[in-house]
Design goal:
Structural class: mainly alpha
Strand content: under 5%
Mean pLDDT: 93
Strand order of the largest sheet: 1-2
Order of helices and strands: HHHHHHHEE
Number of strands: 2
Number of helices: 7
Helix content: 55-70%
Length: about 160
Amino acid sequence: MTEAARREQITAGIVARTGITEAVIEELVQGFYARVRSDAMLAPVFAARITDWAPHLAQMCAFWSSVALMTGRYHGTPMVKHMPLPIDAAHFDRWLALFEATARELCPPAAAAHFIERARHIATSLEMGVASGQGVMLGVGERYKLGEAGAARAR
């Protein structure tokens, strides 16, 4: 079996189990980022870096297609993009809260659970990467926190 055929088989299995399609991903991404853009904590972080939302949303659809359906559509470097951001555990918690609420509202239960499980892993990984990029190595159970003067520390 070729790699492409194997990937198609995996994707078909996920679609059958969860009901996730590219249309579901598009709706989730659009709904989630609408919330992000109006969120007091997250909107400024995104607004400082994104002026043209259409390419970003297309990239996020490709990302979630790759993460949720194993399609291989995304070819970016999310860790590199997130490491220099002025964000910490509170930002990741807020991101997850908005994402989980959006997924539960817009997706069938099996799809929401699939997305949420992956989002939690992504948030943990990115938080560790952001901390590491600031010279902070998080131990098990530690969270990354920006200090009052912008200094990083684990808590």
